[in-house]
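FIELD: query
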Amino acid sequence: MKYLSVSEIAKKWNINERRVRVLLKEKRIEGAIYQNHKYLIPENATKPLDRRVKGQRCFEDSPLEKTQFDFTNYRKIYPSEDGYFGRYGGSFLPPNLKKAMKEIYDGYLTIAKSAKFISELREIRKNYQGRPTPIYHCRNLSNYFGKVQIYLKREDLNHGGAHKLNNAMGQALLAKYLGKKKLIAETGAGSHGSAVAMAAAYFDLKCDIYMGSVDIKKQAANVSRIKVLGANVIEVSEGSGTLKEAVDAAFEAYSKEYKTAFYCLGSAVGPHPYPLMVRDFQEIIGREAKEQFLEMTGELPDIVTACVGGGSNAIGMFEAFLNEPVNIVGVEPLGQGKEIGKNAATMCFGKEKVLHGFNSLVLENPDGSPANAYSIASGLDYPGVGPEHAFLKEIGRVKYEAISDDEAAEAFFLLSRLEGIIPAIESSHALAYAIKCAKNMNSGSILVNLSGRGDKDMDFMVEKYPHMFLN
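FIELD: result
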């Protein structure tokens, strides 16, 4: 029997030596022996499956073990022609807006799939947005908790400081091709509003951004940035004065201007074809991340995770991994607790309902009306969720967890101090989940989509958490 060293087997299996040693420690390589202070591995040893190790808390009840769904042709099948992911999605709109949606859908299927459009968008992504964004290995953060390796997909390094520009530039380019003169958009944290304002400036379009009064106060830096970029910020004070009301107002404005304006929806929500378009424009995140992670480590991560409000950054990250032996986790805001009105954890507590022109899961009041959502993160306090997320949960492919305000805040300050990277408070929810897993796992790797940077959150976080800031 011929034996190989750790380095030789790592090269043969196209994985790094650290991973080989983990497999040896877990006794997953049959026939391996330890002799003269080194491991020897049979030349004919079979590489263990790249899958999660059972029996560790964050790995139990894996969706990967439950689903028999075939994802080979998933993107060609879902959504359906009328915009459904299973029973979620669709388009529930007045007649005038149905006509507008048909124009957008027809334009997307023709213009946006043309070689000219794709070539122009690629040039924008490379030379304007600065893509591809890198993957970063958090060595200090990983060592702080032990043996689990945490990696970040650095969407905070995308132009504008968040993933939002991937979608905004795609939709604005489509609007330009359709001959529209204005972009209308909603925003919560201000990242999408900033991205649409940038896109409007790039394509020489007028721009109106609707934003809740509460979020305008919390995200003053982004409000100023939107105005500097030449867009109008229109304050919405009705209701809770947050993202839901901003969406309501933006849709109302669009219904009056749809002949000359384009509604640039920021998340993977809304009537068909928006969930489809947002997914397609954001999936560049996952495609890059998958290729980069394989090149960096020689294998796929054990867990891929991202924060979920409406769900655009998450669906963009998850799509490339759906047909891979990887566990995927969406992380929602638990806020201040499980009671309705204290969180925005729609996947955990929502019920099936039509909201903003599509059918999905929605947080409800006892009388059946949409509840006010709450999160420390303005970009996550939406009472609904994208229909594709609801579908992926239902079929068991993606697991959804919730993280509290305080847990997200701890992750915000910890990453800042250990790695010199200030994350958006939205992204900090996914990071907090990775940290929770790192505390409970013996080994493995976690890839977090760092969907945005935290400049916009600095003043608010320092004021709200002075004890964490001063420590």
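FIELD: remark
Residues 50-57, 59-63 have pLDDT under 50 and may be disordered.
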